[in-house]
Amino acid sequence: MVKILIRKAAFYKEPLSQASGISNANQLHGKELSYNNIRDTDAALKLAAEFTEPAAVAVKHMNPCGVGIGETIFDAYEKAYEADKTSIFGGIVALNREVDAKTAQRLSEIFLEIIVAPSFSEPALAILTKKKNIRLLTVDFSNFAPSLEKVSVGFGLLVQDSDSLLENPETFTVVTEKKPTDAEMRALLIQWKIVKHVKSNAIVVGNDVQTLGIGAGQMNRIGSAQIALKQAGEKAKGAVLASDAFFPMDDTVLAAAEAGITAIIQPGGSIKDTDSIEMANKYGIAMVMTHVRHFKH
């Protein structure tokens, strides 16, 4: 018999804040949100808010497991679902456009804890509220703003600025003989947005419309890369790879080359950057350095 530890929790809101986010969400349906629900939804919202185009983000345990963008929110969700059909089960999905009936029908086909979006059409609500326990939330996506990150430590509170730097791709540097194509650069910029929301060590494999593999929270970078590349499988061929921090050795670049990755984006800054650049040149991989490390903990 397993004993479930029940811990008391409370949710406090900054009283004067009108910014977009989980604190100002409206719950339309479903059970009360748990501590973990709130944290996971917060993580999903912050990533979904990175995109101006229709985007869908699936999150499990504070990490994205699938991200998709598309011409419509239905297309975006389809891509997020296809990115990892296994991990999305029991997850949280954030969408940055109104949920219509077509999208709601697809969302209703699997077990999800929470769906959060700017709004739901009446037909969409009619479909989704047939599920008694699913939580449906609306959040205004027009006013996301940086906020201080606060984490409790033993009898103390650790506070830092949020990772909200607006990066300019014109400051990025191509460090390899091969330059990324326009399509590869689009994919690199999309995956770079995503990887900063993955717990370090973080590696994301993807293309210009979806993630294909995500390696999160491993104690070494090659371990995260192996997870992401294995998940991507054959789809890694012709895809790109993003790393939230520099490569301490060239083993990740070698693994990427063997999987068929054609372009890599990473901060740079390692004393062994030259080794990684030479490995990329050896296999004809384009490498872009951003000069900014994310390193989410």
TrEMBL record:
Pfam families membership: AICARFT_IMPCHas (PF01808)
Biological processes annotated in GO: 'de novo' IMP biosynthetic process
A single cellular component GO annotation: cytosol
InterPro entries found in the cross-reference section: AICAR_Tfase_dup_dom_sf (IPR024051), Cytidine_deaminase-like (IPR016193), PurH-like (IPR002695)
MF annotations from Gene Ontology: IMP cyclohydrolase activity; phosphoribosylaminoimidazolecarboxamide formyltransferase activity
Taxonomy, superkingdom: Bacteria
The entry's keywords: Hydrolase, Multifunctional enzyme, Purine biosynthesis, Transferase
SUPFAM superfamilies in the record: Cytidine deaminase-like
NCBIfam families, sorted: PRK00881.1
Xref: PANTHER family: BIFUNCTIONAL PURINE BIOSYNTHESIS PROTEIN ATIC, BIFUNCTIONAL PURINE BIOSYNTHESIS PROTEIN PURH
Full protein name: Bifunctional purine biosynthesis protein PurH
Protein species of origin: Listeria fleischmannii subsp. fleischmannii
Gene symbol of the encoding locus: purH
